[in-house]
Structures are given as structure tokens and as C-alpha cells.
Amino acid sequence: MKTDETIFHENIDRLLDVLDTDIENIHRNLSALNQLRSSVIKRDNDCLAQLLKKIQAEAGGHKNNESKRKSIRKELAHSLGCPAEKVTLTSLAQILPEEKKGLITERKEKLTELLKQLKNEYHATAVLLSECSRFNRILLKTLFDNKTAETVTYDAEGSALRHFDSAFVNMKL
């Protein structure tokens, strides 16, 4: 029969495995964001379609790992006699023996570092997609909004020359 302490340490080992999976998932997400930006810049629709399928296929694994983490957290909270919200990696590191404390601290630092990277990569991707959207809007407005088309060009001296009603495309048949 397993003691409470044995179950507690087994849950810590399970938590370490879940954290390792989280680290792998973040690495895959970083790679996917890089691939997304690259494919958008290259206008590689096939690669974008494959990336979308890959992300959809991996979504279930992320949810499964998330539910494992929540379950382990509840079990650890029950073992410690506190609410699940109080069970954090920092609080666990304070009560664990030195060897497990080091493992938890190492995973926490790695996750913190990777999450900073992920936030930066996500921001860079959002900016790229936002700029693509803005550029496409301007381009479509210029091409098809004949009534408000205003073209600005500059001469050799840098003076602005405005051309009104000069649509880029003649839409008459």
C-alpha cells in the first residue's frame, strides 16, 4: 500500500513530466510562429495550409497536457491540505528535498524564458499580419475605390503632386 508521501512524490514526478511536455509544446509553438511568418512573407499558401493542419492536429495534445497539469495540481493540493490555487512551482520548490527542488526550479526557469520568447515571437507575428492586412486594405482601396482615389507622387524636388480620380484599374467594360 502506498503512503501519502509516496503518492506525493509520484505526483511531483508526473508534474515534472507534464512540465517537460509544456517545454516541448512551447518549442513547437515558437517554430510554428517562425514558419508562419516565413510562409506569409514568401506567400507560400501550401506551407500555410500544412501548418494549419499541423496546429489543428496538435491542439488535442495541448488540451490533454493541460488537463493532466490541473489534475496533478489538485492532487498535490489535496496532499498538502491547501487550495489548488496555492500550489505553484515556487511553493512546491520550498517544501521539496534539494534534488526535486532543483528539478522544479530548472523547469520553472526554462518555462519562464521560453514564455518570454513566445510572447516576443507572437508580438512579431501579430505586427507582421497587421501590416499585411493594412497594406492589403490600402491596395484594395486604391484599386477599386474609384470615387475617393487620391494618388500622391513626388517630383525630383520632393514636392507632392496629387492626382485625383486616377484609378489604377479601369472597371468599365
Structure in words:
There is one protein chain. The chain has 173 residues and is mainly α. The chain has a single domain, classed as FlgN-like (Methane Monooxygenase Hydroxylase, Chain G, domain 1, Up-down Bundle), CATH 1.20.58.300. It has four helices and two strands, in the order ααααββ. The chain has a two-stranded antiparallel sheet with strand order 1-2. α1 packs antiparallel against α2, α1 runs parallel beside α4 and α3 runs antiparallel to α4.
Defining traits:
single chain, about 170 residues, mainly alpha, Methane Monooxygenase Hydroxylase, Chain G, domain 1, two-stranded antiparallel sheet, about 75% helix
Per-chain topology:
Elements: H1 4-42, H2 45-80, H3 89-95, H4 98-144, E1 150-154, E2 160-164
Antiparallel strand pairs: 1-2
How far apart, in Å, are the first and last alpha carbons? 86 Å
The CATH architecture designation is Up-down Bundle
**What structural class do the secondary elements suggest?**
mainly alpha
CATH fold description: Methane Monooxygenase Hydroxylase, Chain G, domain 1
What oligomeric arrangement do these chains adopt?
A: single chain
Overall average residue pLDDT: 86
Output the CATH class name.
Mainly Alpha
What fraction, in percent, of the residue positions are helical?
over 70%
Question: Segments where pLDDT lies below 50 for 5+ residues?
Answer: none
Strand arrangement in the largest pleated sheet: 1-2
CATH superfamily: FlgN-like
What is the domain total for the residues? 1
Q: What is the CA-atom radius of gyration, in angstroms?
A: 27 Å
Q: What is the succession of H and E elements? A: HHHHEE
Number of strands: 2
The backbone outline, from C-alpha atoms, is elongated
**How many H/I helices?**
4
